[in-house]
Amino acid sequence: MTTRATVNHFYSQDDCLGLGATCEVFKGISKTGEIRALKVFGLRADHDMDREIKALQNLRHPNIIKFYGMEEELGSKKLTVIMEFCEGGSLLDLLNKPENAYGMDEDEFLLLLKHMVAGIKHFRKKGFIHRDIKPANILRSIADDGQSVYKLSDFGTARPLDEDEFFQSLVGTEEYLHPAIFKAAFFDRDRNRQFDMSADLWSLGATLYHCATGRVPFRPHSGRADKETMFLMISKKPEGVISGIQAKHHGEVKWSRDLPDLCPLSLSLKKCLTKILASLLETHPKKLYTFDEFFVEMDGILEKECVTVLTTTTTISPFSRIYKDPQQSVQHIQKELEKETAIAVCDQKLFCDGVSVSTELDLSDDVRPFTMARPIILISSKSEGAVTTSNDPYMAEISENSVSFMSTCQPELDFKTARRCRDHIGLLHRQIQRLSACQQHIVQLRRQLRSNMRNCIKAKHLKAEFVKGILTDVCRLIEKTLDQDNSMRPQAVDKLISQIRRELDMYSDGCEQKFFGSQDGSLEENSWCFESGTCVSKFARWLDIAKSLCSQFSDRRKKRRVSSLDERMTIVEKKQMKELMAKCVSHWTDHCYSKTKFLLDSFHVWTRHYSEAEASLEKTEDHLENAKTLVIQLASQVISKSPNDESISSQKSVSRRNQEAKSIDLIVNKLIQETKDSKEAARSMRESLDSLTEEFENLEVFNAN
User: Fold this and answer.
1) Which listed CATH number (3.40.50.2300, 3.30.200.20, 1.20.120.1810, 3.40.720.10) goes with 3-84?
2) pLDDT tens digits, residue range 363-407?
3) What sections of 485-593 are H helices per DSSP?
4) What is the CATH number of domain 91-302?
5) Per the residue annotation, which of 132, 196, 392, 423 is the catalytic one?
6) How far apart are CA 629 and CA 468, in angstroms?
7) Residue 195 DSSP class
8) Top-level CATH class of 411-641?
9) Which residue, 166, 242, 511, 667, is most buried by CB atoms nearer than 10 A?
């Protein structure tokens, strides 16, 4: 290990962080113990070094790499720039992880957008252009709370440039180069050239696409070696196209105006981002965004609040994310959900924490965010059974892009095949996290709604028994009165009694039968992905194994000569990787995906029964209210005409019923504690009981007078 030093810093040549055309970057330590990044320039890099130092001295921002000073390396006299060390590596390192093989997680992507926009705003405010924006030049620091802090770095190509100025240097990286610079660099070197700040905008668009999808936007079959095809793709692409893929050598290019289906971003964000990408990856000057227009669009996205909604109509992407302005209510979310799910607003039922979400609710009052761990859940009141998609896009991707290992030991091809297997396992691991959370929320909501319905039915039973008890007391009073004076029983009284009994009979034929008919025990008997021995844990373990195997293939391809032992190990590791891939695919198709589809299809049927029972429950409430009103009318007629001694008896009966009402109140309060959803029903019942008690108290006062 060779140790080198500057006046105030030390570093080892083994701790190289990166290599550039004119410099090397090492992890170093200061004499006072701080970890730093040391950028050591070659002896002929004065111009690049001066340019970078000038830029860093003028750019001081949390999202731009921090500059500490410049020193000379002892002995060699090489100039060394001392900069902030970012322990999270580069954005490219993050994108190369299997978890991000198909794009970054949405929360992390939004954080990246926020930090990139802030950093770019700052260097544009200072009048600079970067000229080499790409994932490798965006570094990642880790804050105390564990969140990423993204910082723009490598300002060796940066220079001051106003909006109406041009530059001539051929700088940048091929996959992110503006078409005009690409042409000048590889096909037309001798021609006079002028480039403007659109170079940064194009590079920015290509970088954002890479972060969202895990792939660069334009990909010839032979990669960067086929520069002619690459130039034709980026310079001749149709308007509005944001990506192009050439599947075969000299084959046709498949253009796309949309982000891929397997891009993990939500439909809402995809829609906004697609519009921005189309205006960044544009060669026509009048159709290309300016930086100011880009900032306005980005601020519009970043200022919105995100609400996560679990929709039960798809297994592809069950969690939707709706972006809204802070002042917008639930109704805005419902309109957006109607566009995404085709469930009409009038048929939508929203729940959170097992409680129905009111359309008038101000979501800003809830300080806890609506995330995948705590989403709003959407169900349709007109669910017609199994409506989830039967296509599995994840298996389609794996089947379409699967590559078998070669029978012979070919380190480079073996590594690429192993990496693809690893990335496919990473794709399934990410998706099982979502499906597992989806299953858990659906099962919990179903259990909560069942409990709510039972308690509501209990409350209605109590109310019905109370009304029946009063009716019995009034009928007994009528019979006693009838013994004394047969003329006191008018036909109107008999009519009222018959009407009350009809209302009570209609209550008895209400929701209970429909509710208990919706009990599907099979949903409770299943073993779900989120329960003991979780599928998430299994796939995490399998992904770790795949990473380890892929690392072995990577190390082997770096060797100049493959030994016989290496060949034997390659055979063993190929077999292990194939068996691991088969195990992951089998578990996904036979358990995770099929279980989720079964749950969602069954839940649609169950919610239809639940909605019918809920509608019947509302009708029974009307019947009980009618019965209560009629009992009060009957009691008023009978008590007002009965003799005094019978009035006293009726008063005692009323007093007894008042005690019963208090007992029922205690039971109702208990039900309120058992479930939030029964609160409204219980409150309505208590108000009805109070009203009924007040009516009888008024009758007591009337008879006493």
Assistant:
1) 3.30.200.20
2) 555 556 788 999 999 988 776 544 555 577 888 888 877 778 888
3) 491-508, 511-517, 522-525, 535-557, 564-587
4) 1.10.510.10
5) 132
6) 12
7) B
8) mainly alpha
9) 242
